[in-house]
Amino acid sequence: MKETFKREGREWLKAFAIGIIIFIIIRAFFFSNYEVDGESMMPTLENGNKLVVNKIGYKISNLKHFDVIVFHANEEDDYVKRVIGLPGDKVEYKDDHLYINGKKYEESFLDSYRSQVAAGRLTGDFTLEEITGKKTVPDDSLFVLGDNRLGSWDSRHFGFISIDQVVGKVSLRYWPLNEFQMDF
After folding, report:
1. In a 3-state reduction of DSSP, which class is residue 102?
2. Which residue has the higher pLDDT, 90 or 119?
3. Cα gap 128→130, rounded to integer Å
4. 24-52: b (≥16 Cβ within 10 Å) or e
5. Phi-psi bin for 49: left (phi > 0), alpha (psi -120 to 50), beta?
6. DSSP strands (E only) in 86-184
7. CA within 20 to 30 Å of 139's CA: 14, 18, 86, 124, which one?
8. Which residues span the membrane (predicted)?
9. Which positions are annotated as active-site residues?
10. What residue segments make up the domains of the chain, in order of their start?
């Protein structure tokens, strides 16, 4: 009886240790938690929102226009922004409307802010060449903007980001619970 109890205890301990190791591997290589710090992605994401970031999804399925990503801005800080321009894209804003490679795109995620701003001007007019000196987004780079266009530090200020800086794609907002959302 005592031997059976010892054996069962060892099996439980092994199962627990294996579970911890699997959790650490998943956390380190596949998913990460992130807390939004600031208001640059409002109204989509607000200060204090807690997110799950998929670290491998963007490599497997490639990033797409309007994906929300987290990237290393510098040694200490990570930023969360929306992908607007992919490698090879020509991005411009005319009359506060987005054009990618000459095609007009609607940005419905900006509607609540657009209605609050005089004349609906959020982003302003610009071309990539005016703000970066390049006509198109370079290979292995992205052009990113915050949804709070009037209060976001983004590619209009610091230029392109390298795809190597990307931590991952935002997959889930889990806090606050009443704002739970998947697939940004």
Report:
1. coil
2. 90
3. 5
4. eeeeeeebbebebebebbbebbeeebebe
5. beta
6. 91-94, 97-100, 103-105, 126-127, 141-145, 161-162, 166-175, 181-182
7. 124
8. 12-31
9. 40, 81
10. 2-182
Strand ranges, E, within 42-129: 50-54, 68-72, 78-85, 91-94, 97-100, 103-105, 126-127
Are 80 and 36 within 8 A, CB to CB? Answer: yes
User: If you count them, how many residues does the chain have?
Assistant: 184
pLDDT tens-digit series, residues 119-169: 557 787 888 888 888 999 999 899 999 988 888 889 998 999 998 898 888
Please give the model's pTM, rounded to 2 decimal places: 0.77
Pairing type for strands 91-94 and 97-100 reads antiparallel
Instruction: Quote the pLDDT of residue 102.
Output: 93
H or E segment to which residue 158 belongs: helix 155-158
Instruction: Look up the CATH number of domain 2-182.
Output: 2.10.109.10
Tokens, residue 162: 């390298």
pLDDT at residue 112 in the model: 72
Query: What's the token pair of residue 150?
Result: 């009037």
CB 93 within 8 A of CB 126: yes
> Mind listing the pLDDT tens digit for each residue in 35-77?
778 788 878 888 888 887 877 755 544 788 999 998 888 888 8
Select the more confidently predicted residue: 33 or 158: 158
Contact status, residue 69 vs residue 144, Cβ threshold 8 Å: yes
